[in-house]
Amino acid sequence: MRVWSTEHVFSYPWETVIKAAMRKYPNPMNPSVVGVDVLDRSLDPRGRLHSLRLLSTEWGLPGIVRAILGTTQTRTYVKEHSIVDPDEKKMELCSTNITLTNLVSVDERLVYRPHPDNPEV
């Protein structure tokens, strides 16, 4: 079930956007992501870069929220798989939570491509 969808056009070349997407965590603008571990990274026969990363997040939930949720856990983990295809100029990034799945399931899919009307920006 899709709950939310959006589209954004970045005013930068595709290569710049992809580099930024791969380096987005950790960063001071989102301090909840406290760690990024690369679990696997490889090239397939078509020259596409596959990356599997584990994102560690710390949300610092207030005690009352933890009590309502029935958990003391504030550190959560997200599995992120990305495929970068330099020939097609396409990056697909899929993320899903692997902790607290009994409470909430979050599946995110991002696709980065050059704009069809202006592929240079």
TrEMBL record:
PROSITE patterns assigned: PRELI_MSF1
One Gene Ontology cellular component annotation held by this UniProt entry: mitochondrial intermembrane space
Pfam families: PRELI
Annotated PRELI/MSF1 domain residues: 1-121
Stretches that traverse the bilayer: none
Protein name: PRELI/MSF1 domain-containing protein
Species name: Muraenolepis orangiensis (Patagonian moray cod)
